[in-house]
Amino acid sequence: MNLIKKSLLIFLSTIAVLFCLAVQSLAADNFVAGPSSIFAAGLFLGTLLAIIILTTAIGFWNLESLLDWFKTNKYKILSVFLSLIVSVIVLIIIWKLLDKSPNKKNQNIQIMLQAFVVISVIIGIFVAYGRLKASEKVRIHQVLTPLILEYRSSEMLRALRELHNLREAHKDDIVEEYFRIKEKDDRIIAALKPELKLEMEKTTLHHHRRYVGGFWSLVAGLYYLKIIPAPMLHWYWSKTTLSILPNIIIPIEEALFETTKENRTDETPPMYEILRKLHKEWPDNKPK
Q: 212 with 159: CB under 8 angstroms?
C-alpha cells in the first residue's frame, strides 16, 4: 500500500471515529429520546461506515472488484460481522447498566467506552485485512506453483519443440501440414492394437497441440476470472512466450473449430477467440 493510500486510510478512519462520537454526543443531549437506541444506531452506522471506508481506501476502488472480494471471502467476512454484532450487544448491555446510575460522569465514561470500541474495531479490521491478504497470497501460490511446474515439465518442453519445428518448416501452410500429419497419425493409431494406442497418441502432433493449447486456455481462465492477479501472470510469462498463440495455436484451433461448427449447440465464444484476446491484452514488458 503506497503512502497516499495509507494517509487517506488514516484520515477517513479518523472521520469515522468522530462520526460515532458525534452521534454519542447527540444521544447525551437527547437523553429523553432514548439514548440506548441512538447509541446502538450510531455505533452500527459508524462501524459500517468505517468498514466501507477501510475497504475502499485499502484499494478496492470499483464495485466489481469489491463484490468479487466479498464473494471470495464471504465466510471470513461473516465471522467478522457476527463478532461486531456480539460487540454491539455487549455494549448495549453495558450502556443500560451505566444508564441506570444517576452519576453524571457516566456520560463521559460512555463516550470514552464508545471511542475505545470504535478504535478497537478499526484495529481489528486492520488485523483481519492483513490475515486475509496473507491467506490470499497462499491461495494464489497454491494455484500458481503447479502451473509453473507444468510449463517447465519435460512433456511441455517436447510439445513446444514439436510445434515450433512445425512452424519453422511450414510457415506458409502450417494449418494444412498440421491436418496432413494428423490424418497420417490417425491412420497409424487405428491400425495398432488397443493396448498400444494410448502410448502412440501421446507422441502425436495433435496431442502436443492440445497439451499446449489446454495450458494457455487454463491461464486464460485464471486471468479473466481473476483467480490470479494479472501482474503476477505477466511476471512469469512474457509476451514473447505467448507468441506461440497467434503463430501456431490460434490458426489451428480456428481451423478445427470450423470443421466442427455445425455440430455445436452452445453459444459460448470459441477458445481461439479468448486466446487471441489474451495475447492482445498481454503487456509487452513485465511489471516492475
A: yes
* Burial annotation 39-48 (CB, 10 A radius, 16+ → b, else e): bbebbeebbe
Same domain, 206 and 246: yes
Are residues 278 and 242 in contact, defined by beta-carbon separation less than 8 angstroms?
A: yes
Q: What's the predicted TM-score (pTM) here?
A: 0.59
111 pLDDT band, cuts 50/70/90, is low
117 neighbors 93 (Cβ within 8 angstroms): no
**The pLDDT of residue 61:** 44
CA 207, 274, 164, 254 dihedral sign is positive
Q: Which residues contact 216 (CB under 8 A, 6 or more apart)?
A: 242, 244, 245, 249, 275, 278
Which residue's C-alpha cell is 513485465? Answer: 286
Report the distance separating Cα 59 and Cα 48, nearest Å. Answer: 17
Range of the domain at 178: 153-281
pLDDT at 34: 46
Q: Determine contact, residues 58/84, Cβ cutoff 8 Å.
A: no
Say if residues 16 and 53 touch (Cβ distance below 8 Å): yes
Contact predicate 189/197, CB 8 Å: yes
Same domain for 8 and 131, yes or no, is: yes
Do residues 103 and 168 share a domain? no
Q: What is the mean pLDDT of residues 28-40?
A: 47
In the block, which residue shows the cell 498481454? 282
pLDDT at 252 over 70: yes
Closest CA to 39 of 56, 22, 59: 22
Q: Is the Cβ–Cβ distance between 85 and 93 less than 8 Å?
A: no
**How many residues comprise the chain?**
288
Please give the single-letter amino acid code of residue 184.
Answer: K
